[in-house]
Amino acid sequence: xxxxxxxxxxxxxxxxxxxxxxxxxxxxxxxxxxxxxxxxxxxxxxxxxxxxxxxxxxxxxxxxxxxxxxxxxxxxxxxxxxxxxxxxxxxxxxxxxxxxxxxxxxxxxxxxxx
Length: 114
Ligand code: AMP
Ligand code: ZN
Known about the structure:
The chain is built from two helices and five strands. It is of the alpha+beta class and 114 residues long. It has a five-stranded antiparallel β-sheet, with helices on one face. The protein binds adenosine monophosphate and zinc ion (ZN).
């Protein structure tokens, strides 16, 4: 499958990994939009939020506890952070493998939508 994030999971493409287990991978975004910008992804290829299945519910719940672990690791658990999932054309999703942007390390803008 020609999916960039599957290649990152398979280590065919290098990345700066901050967390990994059998189901979840987290790595630094190559073009950080904030001092802390980590992408947290399921290892299962799910192309977008719209493709979620009932069977994925536990995995998505787990991703949020992993996000907390990553937040602790990168030092934003106490200061706070924002989690964003872009979906589809209007959501400006570029990479078609579900990913959660974990952003922080500074006071983020109050507006989510420009
Ligand atoms: P999205 O626009 O929500 O699909 O986000 C895709 C994100 O992937 C962007 O923030 C990119 O900077 C990031 N990205 C693209 N290629 C890589 C890569 N090779 N390693 C890490 N992050 C990447
Ligand atoms: Zn993929």
